[in-house]
Design a protein that fits this description.
Helix content is about 35%, strand content about 25%. It is α/β, with parallel strands linked by helices.
Length: about 110
C-alpha cells in the first residue's frame, strides 16, 4: 500500500519534530520533508512532490499564505492543510488556498 506523503512546514522546530513523531506512528503516512519557512518549502518542492503539505500560516521569510498563493498559481497538486494558532477568517483561507485547516496550541 502506498503511503500518503507529507511535507511539514512550520517555523517551530519542536512542533515539527513532535508532529513528525506522531505521523511516524501511522503505517499509512510518512513525512518526506520538513521546512522552517515558505521559501525553504519552495526549494524542497523542487525535489519532492508530497500528497499533503501541512503548512503553518505565520512564519518568517515567507508566510504560509504567501506560499499557498504561489502554489495555487503554479497548479500544485498537493493538498494544503493550514496550521495556525488563532482564527483568521478560516472560511476564506479554506476556500481560496487550502483543503482544510487545523488549530494548533503551543
Amino acid at each position: 500500500m502506498k503511503k500518503i506523503s507529507i511535507l511539514l512546514v512550520d517555523d517551530h522546530e519542536l512542533f515539527r519534530k513532535g508532529i513528525k513523531s506522531l505521523i511516524e506512528n501511522e503505517s499509512d503516512l510518512e513525512v518526506i520533508g520538513m521546512a522552517s519557512n515558505g521559501k525553504e518549502a519552495l526549494n524542497k518542492l523542487e525535489q519532492i512532490s508530497p500528497d499533503i503539505i501541512l503548512l503553518d500560516i505565520s512564519m518568517p521569510v515567507m508566510t504560509g499564505i504567501e506560499l499557498a498563493k504561489k502554489l495555487k498559481r503554479s497548479m500544485c497538486i498537493s493538498k494544503i492543510i493550514f496550521l495556525f494558532e488563532i482564527i483568521i477568517s478560516p472560511c476564506k483561507l479554506i476556500i481560496d488556498y487550502c483543503s482544510e485547516y487545523i488549530m494548533k496550541k503551543l
